[in-house]
Amino acid sequence: MDAIRGTAKAELTAPVEAFLADLHARVSKVTGGSPADYIPELGKVDPSLFGIAIATVDGQIYEVGDTDVPFTIQSVSKPFMYGHALQRHGRPTVLKHVGVEPTGEAFNSIVLDEVANRPFNPMVNAGAIAVAEMMPGDTQEQRIGNMLDLFSSLAGRRLGIDEAVFRSELETGHRNRAIAYMMLNTAMIERDPNEVLDLYFRQCSVNVSCCDLAIMAATLANDGTNPLTGKAVFDAQYVRDMLTVMNSCGMYDYAGEWAYEVGMPAKSGVSGCIIAVMPGQIGICVYSPPIDTQGNSVRGIRVCQEISSEFELHAFNNRTNVRSVVRRDYRADLVRSNRLRTLEERNLLATEGHKVAVLEAQGALFFGSTEQLLRKTSALAADSRYVVVDFKRVHQADTSACKLIVRAAKSMEGSAAELVFASLAEDDRLDPLVRALAESQHGHRVRQFRDADAALEWCEDQLLAGANFNHGTKFAVSEINLFKGLSPGECRLVESVIRPLVFERGDVIMREGDEAKLFFVLARGTVSVQIKVHGKGNRKKRVARSAPASPSARWRCWTAAAAPPTSSPMSG
């Protein structure tokens, strides 16, 4: 794991690193607070230690200061244990044992919700102890092992427990014992409180570094997938729950002011660490042992305030313009497919092509952007026969977007305009939409093509067929451009040495590696050249499509043999 992490770190000075270096130098001068001494081992830590690390959702790490110095995770463990409980047991079960409301009380208060007799939220000690009991395992050793596996998968390397801090917590954690026995009395926990507390104290004593926690925060920013290892640790739906509770409860009595000034879901620990998460972008960790009376790192708060302000990372800074979902739209009389057409076909499409509208979507599809997209689709459908929606530049479609698009497919059934989709299967980024359409009886009726060019070609063919445009089936050498200018006698001479061949649509004329024996001249129809896409299995990409087109389903070729073939190599 360490080797993986090493490759992710920036090797050259970058603007972000320069900013962090300047920020570290300035905030190093901030005084106030002191290391937590109610846990004796924490009180021994050097108060001058100070590190800042930022990890991006693609695994880039920016760091300055004491980012590799180990310290214990303390309460920053709580959201991750909560996420594991949700992942393992589901929301209904977890909500029976711990709520999601802020308390307005200190993190170690001996108080429960008077209505449900459960802890107010998983970020206070009572809630974290209740969550700790949910760690699976038949024995205490298995539960401890599972806990360490969880944090190791989040950090991207193997983590261990600081035994000195663990013993210090075990010897002085009398208030937590009072909380645990109170919850045993209300049936919020069922096992021996000392056994549950043993695991809780150990989870708080897991050794991490500033870089470790930045990666763990970036895992939440990356919808639960570790950006270094690519391992999915949490389902995205539970990451939302974790971030929601972190946003309202993660900074204890400072949570409201934090949300107002910084605006990022966060969690602090009394060892002097703070993590902050900007979904879809970055995870931040600051480590500086001196904490204030509320248990939050003094320098950590200052750093996060400045990072949020400098880079406008407040969650309610709106950067989403839903109108940008439409990249462009055009009509087929101005932009046509790559299929070569005869002069007569081009003239007809120049007249009738306005009946085909192509709409290019881009970005992420969610309610607001999808509503804009479908409104534009409806406007184009008002004077079109076909509306092609190209998803090539769309990188995500959430559940609401999928539902709206399926409804749009249903609403356009029987209308004058036919809905056509393109580029839905470029890769797995639009799998939710593909599945939603496949599961809907209405989605089955929407024509889907591999790309916009193929969709546009099909629409053009429909226009030509609708206009009864047909070349007929008979032809002569003199009709083929290659032989233009030959005299009638020369044409007859050519005709005497060529042989007409007819291929059905979809037949393969030749494959890579076939012996070059024949020279082909295409008289009717079209021929495509396809190549395999590297790394995509059997997926193929069309790189060329040539010759005048015909609505007929039959392709006709004339060929002159370089050597008399014993059988036709053209049967596909």
Describe the model.
This protein has 3 domains: 37-44 and 67-267, 3-Layer(aba) Sandwich (Beta-lactamase), CATH 3.40.710; 322-466, STAS domain (Transcription Regulator spoIIAA); 477-571, Jelly Rolls, CATH 2.60.120.10. Mean pLDDT is 86; it is low at 1-13, 548-556 and 561-572. The protein is built from 20 helices and 17 strands. Helix 6 (125-132) crosses helix 9 (174-185), helix 8 packs across helix 10 and helix 17 (399-411) crosses helix 18. The radius of gyration is 33 Å and the shape is elongated. Strand 10 (386-397), helix 17 and strand 11 form a beta-alpha-beta unit. Strands 2-1-7-6-5 form a 5-stranded antiparallel sheet. It has a 5-stranded mixed sheet with strand order 8-9-10-11-12, with helices on both faces. It has a 3-stranded antiparallel sheet with strand order 13-17-14. The chain is an alpha+beta fold and 572 residues long.
CATH topology of the largest domain, which one? Beta-lactamase
Number of separate helices: 20
How many domain units?
A: 3
Could you say what the CATH architecture of the largest domain is? 3-Layer(aba) Sandwich
User: Would you count the extended β strands for me?
Assistant: 17
Mean pLDDT: 86
Strand-residue proportion = 15-25%
The largest sheet, given as strand count, sense and whether it forms a barrel, is: 5 strands, antiparallel
Main β-sheet, spatial strand arrangement: 2-1-7-6-5
Query: pLDDT under 50 segments (min length 5)?
Result: 1-13, 548-556, 561-572
Percent helix, as a range, is 25-40%
Distance between the first and last residues' Cα: 51 Å
The gross shape turns out to be elongated
CATH top level of the largest domain? Answer: Alpha Beta
CATH homologous superfamily descriptor of the largest domain: DD-peptidase/beta-lactamase superfamily
SSE class:
alpha+beta
From the alpha-carbon coordinates, what is the Rg to the nearest angstrom? 33 Å
Keywords: Acetylation, Hydrolase
Protein name: Glutaminase
Organism: Methyloceanibacter superfactus
EC number: 3.5.1.2
